[in-house]
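Per your request, structure below.
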């Protein structure tokens, strides 16, 4: 079973991958969800435990289904 830290890292990597596929900077994604680029950086590095609402905001901003954020391959 994965630990919480592993989960946060995988989620952060997935968000970064999807953000880069959409050609968005951390700052631009942050603007779309009313967070600063530093918050996006911390999230992508797995340093924070995002709320369900934040994950929903990110999925909407990236124009993906929320389950796409949890598809770790």
């Amino acid at each position: 079973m994965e630990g919480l830290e592993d989960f946060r890292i995988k989620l952060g990597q997935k968000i970064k991958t999807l953000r880069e596929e959409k050609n968005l900077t951390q700052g631009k994604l942050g603007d779309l969800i009313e967070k600063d680029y530093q918050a996006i950086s911390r999230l992508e590095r797995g340093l924070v435990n995002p709320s369900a609402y934040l994950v929903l905001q990110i999925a909407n901003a990236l124009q993906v289904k929320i389950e796409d954020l949890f598809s770790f391959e």
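Residues 7 and 66 are 15 Å apart (CA to CA).

Regards,
D.
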